[in-house]
Task: structure prediction
Amino acid sequence: MDDLMKCLYDFTLERRMGTMYQDPEYEEVSRGLESQLETVQKDMTEQQEKEFSLLLINISAQTSIEKEHLFRASLGLTRELRALII
Result:
């Protein structure tokens, strides 16, 4: 992602996605995720916890990349739709 795209992406996350954290569905899913995470980790060995942590980091990185591509695709679609109107 180039600097301009990164700046737009960060702006959108900070200024336009803030309401996500007040969304009851988001809050419910977050609580469930935390509870499930505790349940899964309680009987893990140290090595399993390290591997599991690495797995979660990689899943998070993959999700971030997917979100960035979705953002770029949305901007592209916006440009295409704008061209149809003008």
In short: The first helix runs from residue 3 to 16. Residues 44 and 50 are 10 Å apart (CA to CA). The radius of gyration is 18 Å.
